[in-house]
Specification:
Blueprint lengths: L1 H6 L7 E5 L2 E2 L11 E6 L2 E7 L10 E4 L4 E4 L1 E3 L15 H4 L3 E6 L9 H11 L4 E4 L1 E2 H9 L9 H17 L3 E5 L10 H12 L4 E5 L7 H15 L3 E3 L13 H13 L4 E5 L4 E4 L13 H10 L6 E6 L10 H8 L3 H11 L3 E2 L5 E2 L2 E6 L3 H9 L3 E3 L11 H16 L5 H8 L1 H7 L15 E4 L22 E4 L2 E5 L2 E2 L19
Parallel strand pairs: 1-5, 2-6, 7-8, 8-9, 10-11, 11-12, 12-13, 13-14, 14-20
Antiparallel strand pairs: 1-3, 3-4, 6-21, 15-19, 16-19, 17-18, 21-22, 22-23, 23-24
Length: 507
C-alpha cells in the first residue's frame, strides 16, 4: 500500500513513465513483461507491476509496446571525447543508444585532465563521459620530440606524478596505444611502472596492443603481463586478429584469458562489430621505420594489400580521400609501396586540441574474418564497443550498437538478447566500477534505451557514415529524453563521471 501511495503522488515535471515494454535489466536474466519503469529526476524510482500502477499526474509516458527496455549502452572504447566540446549533442552516439562513453583511448587524452573535464561540464553534453589518461600523452609531455627511446628513471617518475594527478582529476585508469608513436617506443617495464601509479588510485589498464596482425597473440600476452606485474585489471581494446596468419586463432586468445583468470587476474576485452578497421598508414608498419620499403611492404601485405586500403582522411590533398592505395599509386605513377611511403612522409601527425596528437591521414582496411568476430562475441568477457568518433568517417561511429543487436543477436544468434544487453550495460559498468549504472532497478540512474528487437539495425556505411540506425526510437539520459521517437532533442543531461581515486583492495 505504501508503494501505491508513493506512485500516486502528483508528479514533478521531470517524472517519466515507460510502460508495456519487455525489460532487459542488464543482468543477463530473462526478459520481464508487465513492468512499469518510473523515473523521477535522474533516478529510477521504482519498477512495478503494471496492474498495480497508477500513473502520476503530469508524467511523460513512453509506450514501449512491442519493444525492449534496456539500460543505456556503455561504449568502452570511444573517441567521442575528442569532439564533445564541438559537438555536445553527440547525435551519432545518442541515436544508437550510447548513454555513457569511455574516452581517452589509444594512449591519447587531454592534459591536464581536470581542466578539460570542467570545460565539458560548462558546455554541457548529451551523453555521460568517462575518460582514461593516455600513456602516450604523458610521454609527449615528458619526453617531447625525443620519444623514440625508453624513458629514463627520472622521466618515468614525472609520468607517474602526472598519472596520479590525472587520477585525482577523475581518470578511470591508463590507456596505451602501443602500436602508435610515441607509445610504441616504450618497453613493457616502462608501461608497468606508469600503470602502477594508476593502480594506487584503484584504476585499471586498457590497451590498443602493439600489433593486431601477425604478432597479435604476443601482444595480447603483454596486456596480461602488465596486468599481473602492475597489479590491476586490464582490458584489450577492440580485440581482433587482423592478419591472415592469425585468422581462426580465437581459441588461443580465449585460452590466454582463461589462464589469466585462473591466476586471479581480471582481463577483459571489447570488440566492434565490423571486419574492417580504421587507423593510420603508420600503424601498419610494425618496425616504425616508415621509409624502409621492406618493412612498409610487409605491413601492406599483412593488411590485405593495396586494394584493401582506402584513404578516408588526407589533409595535404583531400582529392585522394575515398581512393584505394592502388588507385593513388596509379595516379602518381609509382608502385603501391612507394605511394604509401610518400603519403606517410607528406602527412605527419600534428598537435591538436588539448595537446592531443591529431592524424592528418587515416585509412580503412579490411583484414579480419567474420568468424573471428563471432567467436570473440561468444566469450562472456568480451563487451561491445564502437572505437568511433562523433563525426568520424568509419560507420562504426554511428552504427555499432544497433549493428551488434541486428547482426550478432537477432540474425547470427551468437548470443541471446539478454546476454547481448549485458555485454553493452552491466558488464562494462562493472569494469568501470559504475555501481549506479548498467542495470534497471530502483535507485539506479535513469539511463535507458527503448528498441525494437525485430527491426533494430544500423544504416551507416563507408559511403554514408553518419546515417541514422532504425528500430531504436527512445533514449533517456539521467532521466531526460535525449532521443524522442527517433529525433535527437536538445537535452544536455549527460554528465562527466569522475572516478573517485581510492586505494585498490588488498590482493
Amino acid at each position: 500500500m505504501l508503494i501505491l501511495a508513493i506512485l500516486s503522488l502528483a508528479a514533478a515535471p521531470t517524472t517519466l513513465v515507460i510502460t508495456h515494454g519487455r525489460v532487459a535489466d542488464g543482468s543477463g536474466g530473462a526478459l520481464v513483461q508487465g513492468k512499469v519503469i518510473l523515473v523521477r529526476g535522474d533516478t529510477i524510482e521504482a519498477v512495478v507491476d503494471e496492474k498495480a500502477f497508477t500513473p502520476p499526474a503530469g508524467a511523460r509516458t513512453i509506450d514501449a509496446k512491442g519493444m525492449v527496455v534496456a539500460p543505456g549502452f556503455i561504449d568502452m572504447h570511444s573517441h567521442a571525447d575528442e569532439e564533445i566540446l564541438r559537438l555536445p549533442g553527440a547525435e551519432t552516439q545518442i541515436r544508437q543508444g550510447i548513454t555513457t562513453a569511455l574516452g581517452g583511448q589509444d594512449g591519447d587524452s587531454a592534459l591536464p585532465l581536470g581542466a578539460f573535464l570542467s570545460r565539458v561540464e560548462e558546455k554541457g553534453t548529451a551523453i555521460n563521459l568517462t575518460v582514461m589518461v593516455g600513456f602516450g600523452r604523458l610521454r609527449r609531455e615528458v619526453l617531447g620530440a625525443d620519444f623514440r627511446r625508453p624513458a629514463r628513471s627520472d622521466e618515468i617518475a614525472r609520468m607517474q606524478a602526472l598519472a596520479r594527478e590525472a587520477m585525482g582529476d577523475g581518470a578511470f585508469g591508463l590507456s596505451t596505444g602501443l602500436e602508435y608513436d610515441p607509445d610504441t617506443h616504450a618497453p613493457t617495464d616502462e608501461v608497468v611502472a606508469v600503470a602502477g601509479a594508476v593502480r594506487e588510485g584503484g584504476g585499471f589498464y586498457v590497451s590498443h596492443v602493439r600489433d593486431e596482425a601477425q604478432q597479435a597473440l604476443r601482444s595480447f600476452a603483454e596486456v596480461v603481463e602488465i596486468s599481473e606485474r602492475a597489479g590491476l585489471p586490464a582490458q584489450i581494446s577492440h580485440v581482433k586478429l587482423a592478419s591472415p596468419l592469425t585468422w581462426g586463432q580465437t581459441g588461443r586468445v580465449r585460452a590466454l584469458l582463461d589462464d589469466a583468470e585462473r591466476r586471479g587476474l581480471r582481463v577483459t576485452a571489447d570488440c566492434y562489430p565490423y571486419t574492417f578497421w580504421q587507423a593510420t598508414l603508420r600503424a601498419m608498419v610494425v618496425s616504425k621505420n616508415y621509409s624502409d620499403r621492406t618493412a612498409v611492404e610487409s605491413g601492406l601485405v599483412d593488411a590485405g594489400g593495396p586494394d584493401a586500403i582506402r584513404i578516408t582522411r588526407f589533409l595535404p590533398d583531400r582529392s585522394l580521400q575515398g581512393r584505394t592505395l592502388t588507385e593513388v599509386a596509379r595516379l602518381r605513377g609509382v608502385d603501391p609501396v612507394a605511394a604509401m611511403i610518400d603519403l606517410m612522409r607528406a602527412a605527419p601527425p600534428v598537435n591538436g586540441v588539448d595537446g592531443r596528437s591529431e592524424d592528418t591521414e587515416q585509412v580503412i582496411g579490411e583484414s579480419m574474418k567474420e568468424e573471428d568476430v563471432r567467436a570473440f562475441y561468444a566469450d562472456p568477457r568480451v563487451m561491445v564497443s564502437s572505437d568511433g568518433h562523433i563525426d568520424g568517417t568509419h560507420p562504426r561511429g554511428a552504427g555499432s550498437f544497433p549493428r551488434f543487436l541486428a547482426r550478432y543477436v537477432r540474425e547470427g544468434k551468437v548470443v541471446s538478447l539478454e546476454e547481448g544487453v549485458r555485454k553493452m550495460t552491466s558488464l562494462p559498468a562493472s569494469v568501470l566500477g559504475l555501481a549506479d549504472r548498467g542495470r534497471i532497478a530502483a535507485g539506479m540512474k535513469a539511463d535507458l534505451v527503448v528498441f525494437d528487437p525485430a527491426t533494430v539495425a544500423d544504416r551507416s556505411t563507408i559511403q554514408d557514415p553518419w546515417a541514422a540506425p532504425v528500430g531504436l526510437p527512445y533514449v533517456v539520459v539521467n532521466g531526460q529524453v535525449a532521443l524522442d521517437d527517433g529525433v535527437a532533442t536538445d537535452a544536455r543531461a549527460g554528465r562527466v563521471l569522475r572516478h573517485e581515486a581510492h586505494p585498490p583492495p588488498a590482493p
